[in-house]
Amino acid sequence: MKRAERQYALVDLLRGVRHPWSAARLARHFEVSQRTIERDISALQLVGVPIYADRGASGGYSILRDYSLPPLNLSAGESLAVLAGLGLLESSPYQAAAMRASAKIQAVMREEHRGPVHEALGMIRVIDAVAPKDTVTVPLGMLSDAIAARRVVRLAYLGEHADGTPDPSTSTVRDVETMGLLRAGDSWLLAGWCRLRDAVRGFRIERIIDLQILDEVPVMRDPNVWDDDLARWPTRRLG
After folding, report:
1. Radius of gyration (Cα) for the chain, nearest Å?
2. If one looks up domain 3-63 in CATH, what number appears?
3. Rounded-to-integer distance, Cα 172 and Cα 43, Å
4. Could you read off the pLDDT of 37-75 as tens digits, one per residue?
5. All structural domains of the chain with their residue ranges
6. Where does 140-230 sit in CATH, by number?
7. Is residue 188's pLDDT more than 80?
8. Distances (CA, A) of 145 to 18, 44, 198, 212
9. For residue 111, what are the CA distances in angstroms to 73, 102, 118, 199?
10. What is the pLDDT of residue 136?
11. Positive or negative torsion for Cα 55, 58, 59, 65
């Protein structure tokens, strides 16, 4: 969780509880150190959030019940950047979450920014990878759920001809230990340990024609396995 997200969540939590929460309890809840919580509270207090420290054995931090953080105040350029970025994710495994986030940004956008921002968005075009004809593609949200839960997935995957085009006659069924997602050129790839090939592999999402999320949560593999494989390519992390 990003710092800003945690601070918003911290305010919402304190507004919803009946009794003060100690820094130690807040730290356990957000899975951060007590010092991090204390820094978050100090930062919120500095910008005027009415968080109070109650002393004593049952003490802790509390907040005025009717207080809430103001909505994001983005400039036109910032709104354009965020909406454009979310738009790129609408053809990704995070499409549902991206669409919800986009609606929230548009709901709090300043009225004078709406026209220029939507006009600029209308001038952006994206050429996405095209799914092979006559295939059934899987719901993209299933992939992000599987990765978040660290599940093994069983997928039916299209092979390819020598020229790189899909070859339905050479499809295979693979059990894959999910590791993450890759954006390569115009395609999203599911990355994971392929048990059929006994190695790290990337699977183009448009070539996955069937997907099952298994109950198995595999033993965590050494992260260096994926990092070493990625070292062959110029990559960057998001966040």
Report:
1. 23
2. 1.10.10.10
3. 54
4. 999 999 888 878 888 888 766 678 988 766 655 556 788
5. 3-63, 76-122, 140-230
6. 2.30.30.520
7. yes
8. 33, 33, 23, 12
9. 12, 16, 11, 52
10. 47
11. negative
Q: What is the pTM of this model?
A: 0.56
Q: What is the pLDDT of residues 77-108, one digit of tens each?
A: 989 999 999 988 877 878 878 888 888 788 77
CB-CB contact of 96 with 141 (8 Å): yes
Q: What percent of the chain has pLDDT over 90?
A: 26
Provide the H-helix boundaries in the chain. 3-16, 23-30, 34-46, 76-88, 95-108, 111-122, 140-148, 223-230
**CA–CA dist 138, 205 (Å, integer):** 8
Cβ contact 207:134 at 8 Å: no
Task: Fill in the DSSP letter of residue 35.
Answer: H
Q: What is the mean pLDDT of residues 231-235?
A: 80
Task: Characterize 16-27 residue by residue with b for buried, 16 or more Cβ atoms within 10 angstroms of its Cβ, and e for exposed.
Answer: eeeebbbbeebb
**Number of helices (H), then strands (E), in the chain:** 8, 7
For the record, the structure tokens of 224 come out as 């260096």
> With contact defined as beta carbons under 8 Å apart, do 60 and 23 qualify?
yes
Which candidate, 129, 140, 131, places its Cα nearest to that of 211?
140
